[in-house]
Amino acid sequence: MYPIKTKRIYDDYAKDDGHRVLVDRIWPRGVSKEKAKLDDWCKEIAPSSELRKWFNHKEDRFDEFRNRYKKELKKHEKDLKKLREIAQEKRLCLLFGAKEKKRNQAVVLKEVLEK
Q: Could you tell me the pTM of the whole model?
């Protein structure tokens, strides 16, 4: 498996990003489809609207968010399998819109995919 990368969608595109997948349920503000240079938008695998609103990127809620999101991901084995298959063939870059780079859904999803 190639290393999985996480990156803000607002950061510049890089050739070594590999297969770029947006893992947000909502399209990020101010980013055009052309600038995003996406290969996929996997919004089904993003946290539910309820979980996303509850978490609200509050640092003290991240551990509980991680646990809840991992439970939600169990319903998305088909999507997880697809992402793992991509990561077997080339670098996978999970893109997110959050300002926080260490506590977001892409970080949790990466943990699950690398298990």
A: 0.93
